[in-house]
Write a structure and sequence with these properties.
5-stranded antiparallel β-sheet, mainly beta
Length: 77
Amino acid sequence: MSRPKTHVKAGDNAVVVAGNHKGKSGKVLSVNSKKQQVILEGVRPIKKAIRRSEADPEGGIVEKDGPIHLSNVKKAD
């Protein structure tokens, strides 16, 4: 099966045109065309609880960028 084509790619600059984060812009970190989601740098920060592991011995709460629906994002000039 082929994946749907998207109007933004990783590395592009994009602007949020709808939703709670309208008007914010950032660099596209990743695109998931199957789920139709985009992750923009610094636009939608979320907090996630991380369990202790060898890679992260402290665990705790980590802040990372959350996904935004592809239809709410426009490629910036």
